[in-house]
Amino acid sequence: MSTFFAQYAWLVPVFPFAAFAILTAMGKGMSKTGAWIGTIATFASLVLSLCIATERLSGNAEDYSNQFTWIEIGNLKLHAGFEVTNLSTMMLVVVTLVGFLVNLYSQGYMKKDERISTFFAYVALFTSSMLALVLSDNLLTFYIFWELVGVCSFLLVGFWYQKPEARAAAKKAFIVTRIGDLGLLIALLLLFWYMPGHALDFTTIHNVFDSQGGGAISTGITTLIALLIFLGAVGKSGQFPLHVWLPDAMEGPTPISALIHAATMVAAGVFLVARTFDIFDASQVAMTTVAIVGAFTAIFAATIGLAQNDIKRILAYSTVSQLGYMMLALGVGSVTGAMFHLLTHAFFKALLFLGAGSVIHSVHTQDIREMGGLGGKMKITAWTFGIGALALSGIPPFSGFWSKDAILTAALDKQPILFVVGIIAAFFTALYMARLFFLVFVGKQREGQHAKESPSVMTIPLIVLAILATVAGFVETPFNGWFGHWLTGGDAEHHASGLVMVVSAAVGLLGLYIGWLMYVKGTIRRDAVSSRMPGLVTVLERKYYIDELYQWLFVKPLQGFGKALELFDEYVVDGIVRLSGYSVSALGRLNSRLQNGQVQTYALTAIIGIVILIVAIAGRRFW
Amino acid sequence: MEALQTLSWSDTWYLAPELVLSGFAILLVILDLLLPKRINRNVIGWLTLVGLLVSATFVVLLMLSLGDGTDPADSTPEFYSLLGGSYRIDDFGNLLKLVFLGASFFIVFSSLGTVRDTDVPVKAELYYLVLPAALGAMVMSSSGDLITLFVGLELLSITTYILVATRKRNRLSSEAAFKYVVMGGVASAFILYGMSFLYGLTGGTNFAFIAQGLGSAIENFEALLYICFFLMIAGFAVKLALAPFHVWAADVYQGAPTPVTAFLAVVAKGAAFAMLYRIFMNSAFLTPADGSFLQKDVFIALSVLAAAAMIVGTVGALRQKNVKRLLALSGVANAGILLTPLAINLTEMHASLFSEFIYFLIAYSFMNIGAFSVLTILTRDSGNESISGFAGLYHRAPWTAVAMTILLCSLAGLPVTGGFMGKLLILFGTFQTHTYWLGAVILVTTVISYAVYFSFIRQMFMRSGTVDAKLKMSVPATITIWVCTIVTLVLGFMPVPLLEGIDHIFSIPADLLVIQG
Fold this sequence. Notes:
The complex is a heterodimer.
Chain A: H1 11-26, H2 31-56, E1 64-73, E2 76-84, H3 86-109, H4 116-135, H5 139-157, H6 164-194, H7 202-210, H8 219-236, H9 245-248, H10 254-263, H11 268-275, H12 277-281, H13 284-306, H14 311-331, H15 335-363, H16 379-393, H17 399-414, H18 416-441, H19 456-471, H20 482-488, H21 498-521, H22 528-532, H23 534-541, H24 546-594, H25 599-619
Antiparallel strand pairs in A: 1-2
Helix pairs in contact in A: 1-2, 1-4, 2-3, 2-4, 3-4, 3-10, 3-15, 3-19, 4-5, 5-6, 6-8, 8-11, 8-13, 10-15, 13-14, 13-18, 14-15, 14-17, 14-18, 15-16, 15-17, 15-19, 15-20, 16-18, 16-19, 17-18, 17-21, 18-21
Chain B: H1 11-14, H2 16-34, H3 42-65, E1 80-82, E2 87-89, H4 91-111, H5 123-128, H6 130-142, H7 146-164, H8 171-202, H9 207-220, H10 222-240, H11 247-255, H12 258-282, H13 294-318, H14 323-345, H15 353-382, H16 393-396, H17 398-412, H18 418-432, H19 436-462, H20 475-493, H21 495-505, H22 508-511
Antiparallel strand pairs in B: 1-2
Helix pairs in contact in B: 2-3, 2-6, 3-4, 4-6, 4-12, 4-15, 4-20, 6-7, 6-12, 7-8, 7-12, 8-9, 8-10, 8-11, 10-13, 11-14, 12-14, 12-15, 13-14, 13-19, 14-15, 14-18, 14-19, 15-17, 15-18, 15-20, 17-19, 17-20, 18-19, 18-20
């Protein structure tokens, strides 16, 4: 098949990077133009990605890769390059599409911010690094861009650095993900050490681990590497127990939450596991761990989502929960399910975040208890948000239903308990989305709130995403395994399971119904649970006290340790430094003593010097 | 020994670079005499540049005509031996000649338009005397005989004595020149005395001859050989300004016009190294190692001197406020580093000693010329040679401050610069030969030197100077600064092409050792 556009895939990250360079170079004086530069660059990437996707759609396009020798030390060679596979093509489209829509949306959302061109510069840098990450053909460059997207996330979460919460959240996001990154780095070093020929490119990794049993690398090491890679994914994708940064990251501007913390960067962990899936596939322990962590995160975060009152935090926990689903899918061996859910989730979660942003933009609060009846004033936002909510809750025929169905079917085949957990989590998902939607858009309007619909630069992206959230599911249904076949090249693994479809649709509807009863009809009192089990609700509101636990378990002891080190530094290290500084300057004084300007002294010094040298060197033979 | 072979017409081709330089020097002297006073002597400067370029072109042509010895079927000789083996055209000499000519070129180029008549009344001399000085350096790097070596050394030395004194109305300059003459004389005396022992013990001045005679000399006159080598070491230590023989350097560097200071720091020092390599590789290195500790002791002495130079130079620079004196001391420390490959590699030879040396020499030349060019501009502007003259440079000339920062990073050996790469290669050399203590000295002094160079950066970026006006730049100096900065960066980022190039054309047996000549 033709690989005409694939050859130019490297241009996809170059466009946004150029935008970043221009925006940084031009400085602050170009707010409006700056925004357009970012948007147009992303649009160019989108067009090119779509071209690449179109030429690969036929399903049997060859993977295109291109690499060059980056560093050569002795016989050690490090390569860098890019690779276009169906998997990366899908990611390219997702990232550029969501990126473009978010750029467009931000023109409205960030309009009044005076650092708007900085904002667009950061977004462009992020987009560029994320695209480069997707295109990387080896783990080393992947890791570099992995860190770079982390840096961009840090910059953007802390974008409103005047707010102390934003600063703290940025720091937390960075530090917590660093823990995972360390795991990935160790995994990378282990791979480098054990791989034949020190190869780190994905193709070789695939070949080595795919033929496991050839015994190139022992099972123990394989498991270790897989778990360490997974640790990296856990950090980036906000899986338990490193999920704590993601809800806090909502301090960043809402378009960022949509782009980075819902659609793209947090999905990079899933992408990583999918890209190195052969390593996981070779280790049963690793697979089980991935599945259990994923399933647990899915239900764990969903329950927290039930008791939150901040619109963005609810969505953040929902993201954590949905990423858990993707991990679950990978753990039970369904790469298709995971990537499919990644695709649909990117659309509907970006939609929900942008919708939430539209609401916040209009009412200037994030607390859903202070909202209500917005549906009448903000028709487009309400309708599109509703579509997103239905997709997330897994109601047919919206996209989320199909992708969740794919995961649940795979889970049922592998391990019924995981399936049950998934179903319960799906119920909670529907329930908190019902609560969110009904509290915000239905009911009576608050006094003093003058909500009005957002401008069209913001609503158009909503509409586009709503359409995608509706139809994206049809690429892979139990009756049509096109996507799975296209992605993995294998036969359709997704077989129809009537039971799963019925049960998952039923729990979704049940969740929505109970939500309707509680928050609209009032048949069930809202405090039905909290009045009977106040303890449970508090625990959920406080997010299972995980943050407090970490505070006592890690932060405080580390701070104590830091204090001790500081004292050591102040007295012992500084003491040595002062002493050496003093002795050095004493030597210097002696030196300037010699430098008295008398040429006789100079000559004498030379003579004395040579005499000492001769005596010392030759003389040491005699004693 | 064959009868002294006279110079034939065909030899002039091999001597073309040297002949060009001497021709231009004579012509320019006459031209300077004949030209009316009102004509700006910059003309002489430009002609000097032409002479240097023509000479460099001939060097390149000669290099291309030499075989690289990798292909046995290739009959092109790897070197040419002239005048009964007393003069050699080989890649060691050619590479160094290119460095010297290039350095001289940029030094003269950057001083065009920056040197003031009030400071240097004899500007023409400043320009054209560079030619015989460079000629001396080239002779030193091409010699195969003690006599030619010494003639080259004296040509270089005497010319630089004059160059130092060209600030005729400046008391410091005359004092510097006088001190330089005295100390230079002392150094020459040491070296000559040492050489006379070598001649007396082996019966020859040609290296091929000396090498043959060393075996019997060491059996019968070991003590005298010790004296011979240590005398030469002392002489070279003065020339190279190695501690504790360095004290003259600060005074001389301060008194000389800044371009001359740069010339002393780069070309004169490089030439002394060339001579050191020639002599020691062909004598001390060839003394039998069994039965005598001589060889070992000589190289331990060199290592000790290298270490002492690094320590004393760095520590001394810490307290220095005058930039030229400071750069003199930094030059002392760098001389220690430049000496390291020779000092360590000879006992347990490994083939990269020369590439380590020349790589750092090239990096060192460019960073020094760049830094001295910045200094020339600054002192012309304010007359202030102290480090506080750099205050607020960032606000007065931001780009120059950036370039200077890069050059300083290179001097400090910070990545990713030529200075870093060069130091790294030399450091690897100390590890390869297990001379860990010397490696440790390099590391420690490098760290201390950060304090020295960062005080510049602090001045440039964080202090506000007394003047706020834009710094007046001259075009040639600006070009020189940027060429040096870019080369420094390129050497840091892409060391491989140059290293491969050096390795490709250079081989120790053909280019350093004269025995088979």
